[in-house]
Structures are given as C-alpha cells and as structure tokens.
Amino acid sequence: KSPLKVKDPQGAVSEKIRRQSIQALQLVKEGRFTVHVFAFLGGIALVISSIIDAIESFINNDPAEIMISLYTLCLGCLIIVIEGSRKISFPKAWMYNIKFYFRIVDYAWGRGCLYCLAGSLQFTIQNIVNSCVGSYMIIIGVLAVLSSFGAGVKLAELHAQIDSKRDLKACFSKFDVDSNGSLNSKEFALLMLDMDVDCTYHELEACFNAIDKNDDERISYEEFNEWWSGW
Fold first, then answer.
1. Rounded to two decimals, what is the model's pTM?
2. pLDDT score of 70 more than 60
C-alpha cells in the first residue's frame, strides 16, 4: 500500500464525499447526542410510568404487576444514569459499578438490547401509556443496535486504511485542528470523510462512542491508538 496521505481537514475534503455525507455533517454540527438524549428521555418516561403502575398494582393487590413495575423502574433508573452521565454529575462509583457488572453497556448494541428489554416489559402491563413508552424504547433500542453493527463495518474500513502507528499518528495530528491532543466530534467526522468512510449520523455517533472509552466527548490519541492496536 502507498503511504497514508492525509488531506487538509478544513478545505480539501472532496465535494463528492461532502455531498454523500452532508446529513451526517449537519447533525454533527448540531450535536452528537441524539440517541443519548432520546434514550435518557425514555428512561425518565419508564420511571414515571413504572411508579404509576406500581401504585395501581399495589391498590389492586396484584403482586405480579408490582414486580414487573419494580423491574422496569430499576431499568429506567439504570438508563437515566447511563445516558445522563455525559451531562449530569452522578457519583463516579455508580458508573464504575454499572460498567463492571453490566459490561454490555459499553457497546451501543448492548445498550440497545437493554432498551428493547425495558420496552418489552412495558407491554406486560397493558395500557396506552405503557404501549407508547414500550414502543418508543424498542424503536430506540433497534436504532442503537443497527447503528452499532453499521459502525463496526465503518471502523473496519477506517482501520484498513491505516497501515502503521506512524500513519495513525499522522492522521490524528492532521485532524487535531486545535492541537489540544484530542478529536472532537466535528474533527472526527472530517477524518472519516477524508478517509472515504461514508457514515450516517447514527453510525458516526456509534463509531465515536466506540473509541471514546471514557465518555468525555473527545477522542484522545491514547484512545485512538488503543482502538487501532486492539482491532
């Protein structure tokens, strides 16, 4: 293979690639947390509907529905902590324990399965609110799973174009526009575009999250190198 040639991240991205990925770029500029926000809101809806269900089930003396309500309440709280930790200062021990005991939440497909499970449980207590909340969570879960699988393909394409650690460092440095030792979502999007890796917004978000292990909204060179070396 010929040596890696990294183009100027500001002006040399081809117009063809720009047109193919204009939606992803626009959404990146608006913010990369669409799925996270939707999931966070779904977690809140789960908690509220589960509390209401638990009260009604207690009044009706239905132990089975009380247990289901408690399960969905716990899942709702778990989702709120997982997705809200990017913007809300929860105790660090919470996230450490969650990621230690529930390792699948490190992956978009794992979180998607969690959302689908929570949504499915909502349907066991039949009313219009639970049907709406359950359907919403299942849709978000399916979207997260699909974007995760798509991200795996896109990251494989990116990895195939970087032959050595020298190329890796050159690629990272060229797109670290503000020279702060990390890539934000916009810089990462430009990197993917320039390497001819065409992503939808949700695939781009899943790719970013897969490399950003500490959820600080930036990809450090150490994280970039860890991803490339561990592939």
1. 0.68
2. yes
